[in-house]
Every structure is written in structure tokens, then in C-alpha cells.
Amino acid sequence: MMTSATDMRAIGDAARISGVKVPTIRYYEQIGLLPAPPRTEGGRRAYSDADMRRLSFIRHARELGFEVDAIRNLLHLQDDPDQPCAVADALARERLAEVERRIAALEALREELKRMVEGCSHGVVGECRVIETLADHGTCRHHTR
């Protein structure tokens, strides 16, 4: 499908429409997530509707926390839609497992902070549970790896 010059967008317009900042668009081109677009006679980048869809895909994947390599793999899958989706499923499962680990760590952190705050006697710093816990990790129930 041929794209007419009127369907093409300058990088500023592509950034505004896609919600991806101009330097980030250039970075995605540099690392190969977004193909280098054609240039106008004046040397300016010109983005097609397909580029806009790809930028939207990348932005959404980044919002969901996918790393660049995983996005690259997902884009390769998207570019060849007749292949099985097992790889996409595996990437999503890996991301879900990471999110669940982070949630567990955050919940443990929340409990430790609650314990610190609830232990506050509103006295002087020398008797402050918050300062005591921060000064001696051994008194903390939340341990990071």
C-alpha cells in the first residue's frame, strides 16, 4: 500500500499524536524498534499511519513495563502475524511474574513502614522507632535481596 505525502506526519506531529516524545522517537529509530522513515525533500522525517501504529504499540508496551528486548520480540511477532503466539504468551507471563514479585516486595515494604509508623511514640528522636529501624536493618522485618 502506497502512502501519499499528505498522509505523512512530521516528527513533532507524530510525537503529539502518539504521546511519544521526539527524542524517544529518534531513539526508537536508532535502536531499530521503529524503521527509519523516509525524508522529505527538506530532509525532515515523514511518518506514516503504520509508523504511528507502531509507536502506539511501543508506547503501550513500555507503559506495561516491557523491556526494549521484549518489545523488539513482540514487534517481530506482530510483523509476522501467521506464527503461533506462544512466544508472546511467554513474554507476557514473564512480565506478569515480575509484576507479581514487585507487588509482593511492595506489600512487604508497606507492612514494614506501617510497623515503623505505628511504633512511633511521638517522643524524641533518640527513642524514635523510625530512626531506630532505619539505623539497624536487623530490626527490620522487610529484607531486600
Question: How many domain modules?
Answer: 2
CATH top level of the largest domain is: Mainly Alpha
Measured between the Cα atoms of the first and last residue, the distance is 52 Å
Range of helix content = 55-70%
Mean residue pLDDT: 85
CATH topology (level 3) name of the largest domain: Multidrug-efflux Transporter Regulator, Chain: A, Domain 2
Tell me, what's the shape? elongated
Number-wise, the strands total: 0
Determine the number of helices (DSSP H or I, runs of at least 4 residues): 6
The main sheet comes to: none
Strand content: under 5%
Computed over alpha carbons, the radius of gyration is 24 Å
- Label the CATH architecture of the largest domain: Orthogonal Bundle
**Helix and strand sequence:** HHHHHH
Itemize the secondary structure elements and their pairings.
Elements: H1 11-18, H2 22-30, H3 49-63, H4 68-79, H5 86-118, H6 129-135
